[in-house]
Amino acid sequence: MHRRALVVLVALVLLFAGAPRARAHVTLERAQPRGGSTLRSAPSEVKLWFTGDLEPAFSRLRVVNEAGDRVDRDDAAVDGANRALLRASLGTLPPGRYRVVWRVVSVDAHVTEGEFSFRVAP
After folding, report:
1. In the chain, what are the domain boundaries?
2. Per-residue pLDDT band at 25 (split at 50, 70, 90)
3. Taking every pair of C-alpha atoms in the chain, what is the biggest distance, in angstroms?
């Protein structure tokens, strides 16, 4: 009887010890350029780092100007060497406000989305 109770106890500990990792959905950890920042020169790309690996086929990033026109080069991709990094290159940006809109899917299939703005003001 003690052996059976021990097996059940070990199984429960392993189940609950692994559960937080399985439920730990990704969040945006940092961005370049930072949200709310004002830049003297336009960036050549946007980089978003997340707290965990992303599913490349389902993760998106868009950058739009004040008129809502897309200004990224439509090449957003999860980095091959770091699957927690989503990046997109930008065309030439004149002074103005830009909005970064992202939607990512983590390897646990959880969807996270958000947006932030930055300004270019030489």
Report:
1. 26-120
2. confident
3. 75
Three-class DSSP category at 2 = helix
- Which residues make beta-bridge pairs with 54? 106
Containing 13, the helix (H) or strand (E) segment is helix 2-23
Helix (H/G/I), strand (E/B), else coil: 57: helix
Residue 109 is given by DSSP the state: -
Query: d(Cα 70, Cα 67) in Å, to the nearest integer?
Result: 9
Domain 26-120 has CATH 2.60.40.1220: yes
Q: What is the pLDDT of residues 89-107, one digit of tens each?
A: 999 999 999 999 999 999 9
| Average pLDDT in the chain | 88
